[in-house]
């Protein structure tokens, strides 16, 4: 299993980036950061940790329903230079272990110093005999103050540090070293490209490395650690962002599944048959910022509740038997409902999942508002877009009001008068099907037998169009087929899941009209970025057209433009470099850790 492999070690950036121009480009950034670190702290950094952002090619808002997604790492990344803090007349050794002095190359992020607090707790502190335990069975518990209501840039650094402290410094025999760190990065914040996950991954890696705890850490374990660490800032992630940042390899995406357990499969994207016929991903920031905290009640949190309730109602309408764990306190997900519908033991193969999705889509009409109201004797001129009321939703769930609110509303705040069970379910199931079709196209292209979908698709029918086979399909045809799925995905996000916004709808339409094979929102939506599949030979022309037509891009030049719209290819996952005895641009020295992690 790849998850159990040790972390590989590179000796040159040219091993990480075979393209010498790309190696030189990234090498310059590493050198600049090392030089700035030395200027600020008086010594070279011992290590530099690097973690990329990610773009989700397809599979939006279905991970918390436990369906698979299809992300890839991007070239843009977070870099963290770090080194043990040396004692000097101006920077004396701090009295507390593990003190961190954190700075950022961006002036708007002010320097911070923080020290983890230590308390000794018993492994059996909840037992009456706690006071009788010998000190040898006591462990250390570390705490860092993170205000989730007012997250700052250093909160994500602390989150990565938290997991390292409480996993590797649990005895009184060893303490973390005082550390200086300097953070830099070019993943746009708040754009849906997972800058926060990249920051937590890089922080976790940096604190592991500087404390000499990286040896023996498995690839899959780093993913799990980063997922747990990000919960410290209030992000309950399913693991897609961290897995993509850590496990990715160049020219490949990841098919990540969450049920019955987290796993990932590297899938190569179709390659051009001729030079110049390849594609790149172009990420474009709509420059609409969606405040996840302010909008959670009416957006993200609401969608989670709607999909969970829809799963319970659908299972009742189809008379499915769910596992006991999904029928009491734990609300079932739509993926678990599909598993019960298919009736096969897990894990279920992709082909069987695809066939099951196509069948169950024909039955979700039972979730329409008219069908649910008809069961309780409400008839009249129905508007399906209205959805159902809270009372109607509770009735359809088969639960009492108190039990319903305990299971579905006691742990999350939502705000709505109407709930869209049918529309949300249709998006999730059709999007899950599109992910499987996207994967199938990519796998087929490696054997030169590509399953082609029509270039126009619609979410108005209960299931996506079926595919036809052509053994003579070209790479261009494959790109068109992938683009069609991306377009259908955006249409579904906009009309069924209602997680787009006018600016994203406009931006994706402009992208298609400017030569993209396909374009869709990526990330949570309600703002943030789009991702477009663009012919590599037309990238400059494409960006120029989008810049001239999208109102928020007009007048932007140089770095300002490059920050809001840029081309990238699926890139390498997280890695680090140390020690810094030589230039990053030469082949000497010991360049450390490619975290090109994937678990199969």
Labels describing this entry:
single chain, 600 residues, six-stranded mixed sheet, four-stranded antiparallel sheet, 16 strands, 36% helix, 16% strand, disordered C terminus, GHMP_kinase_C_dom, ATP-binding, transferase
Q: Mean of residue pLDDT?
A: 84
Widest beta sheet: strand line-up: 4-3-7-2-1-16
Oligomer designation: single chain
Structural class: alpha+beta
Helix content: 25-40%
Intertermini distance: 6 Å
Overall body shape: globular
Q: Main sheet, how many strands, which sense, barrel? A: 6 strands, mixed
Number of helices: 17
Number of strands: 16
Low-confidence stretches: 125-138, 448-472, 586-600
In percent, how much strand structure appears in the residues? 15-25%
Radius of gyration: 25 Å
Describe the structure in your own words.
The chain contains 17 helices and 16 strands. The protein is α+β, with helices and mostly antiparallel strands and 600 residues long. The strands form five sheets. A six-stranded mixed β-sheet has the order 4-3-7-2-1-16, sandwiched between helices. A four-stranded antiparallel β-sheet has the order 13-14-10-15. A two-stranded antiparallel ribbon has the order 5-6. A hairpin with a 7-residue loop joins strand 3 (100-104) and strand 4 (112-114). Helix 7 runs parallel beside helix 8. Mean pLDDT is 84; it is low at 125-138, 448-472 and 586-600.
List the topology elements.
Elements: H1 13-16, H2 20-41, E1 47-58, E2 70-84, E3 100-104, E4 112-114, E5 117-122, E6 138-143, H3 153-168, E7 179-185, H4 195-210, H5 219-230, H6 240-247, E8 252-257, E9 263-268, E10 279-285, H7 300-317, H8 334-342, H9 350-361, H10 369-375, H11 390-397, H12 401-408, H13 421-445, E11 450-452, E12 468-470, H14 475-495, H15 502-513, E13 518-522, E14 529-535, H16 539-549, H17 558-564, E15 565-568, E16 575-577
Parallel strand pairs: 3-7
Antiparallel strand pairs: 1-2, 1-16, 2-7, 3-4, 5-6, 8-9, 10-14, 10-15, 11-12, 13-14
Helix pairs in contact: 3-4, 3-5, 4-5, 5-6, 7-8, 7-13, 8-9, 9-13, 13-14
Domain Galactokinase N-terminal: 36-84
Region (Disordered): 84-106, 453-474
Protein name: Galactokinase
